[in-house]
Amino acid sequence: MPRKVSLDELNRLSVEDFKTADKYPYILILDNVRSLNNVGSVFRTADAFRAEKIYLCGITGTPPHRDITKTALGATESVDWEYRADVVGLIEELKLAGWIVAAVEQAEGSLGLQDFQPDSNKKTAFVFGNEVAGVNNTVVEKADLILEIPQYGTKHSLNIAVSAGIVCWDFLTKLNKNLTE
């Protein structure tokens, strides 16, 4: 009969080892995310899927804050992050540096996440927007591509933290498959 694996048996990296470990070629950008619990949850996801960095933009809260800490469970210590007031300036800077910028949004001309194939030779920045208004329209217009997570129920959107988890898992699954082929 199977048993749960203990935390010690998981052999996770220490914070120090995580800081120096190779990361996957992507970053997460949170723009005007209101919920500090969502921010903390995205930190945990970024740690789990070894993102290079998180950018917190606009009104998005930053560590240290008890609500972020509560859901991040220490990931604010392992994952590199930076605050930027101006998301559009950040997007322009990343594009000049050769990053692919992908807005995660429901918009005209969007590509279904299931059809997205990462370019293993380029780094990707995924932009997630406000819980109500979504990704800023200027960012959508400046993005190299717009990714849409397919949904089959009655609700029109997913929670930002859930969306980030889906996108990170999908990206790494496809990237790792591409690297082994």
From TrEMBL:
This is TrmH family RNA methyltransferase. It comes from the Bacteria. Residues 27-169 form the tRNA/rRNA methyltransferase SpoU type domain. PANTHER family: 23S RRNA (GUANOSINE-2'-O-)-METHYLTRANSFERASE RLMB (PTHR46429). InterPro entries: Alpha/beta_knot_MTases, rRNA_MeTrfase_TrmH, SpoU_MeTrfase, tRNA_m1G_MTases_N. One of its GO terms (biological process) is RNA processing. The lineage of its organism: Bacteria, Pseudomonadati, Bacteroidota, Cytophagia, Cytophagales. One of its GO terms (cellular component) is cytosol. Keywords: Methyltransferase, Transferase. Transmembrane segments: none annotated.
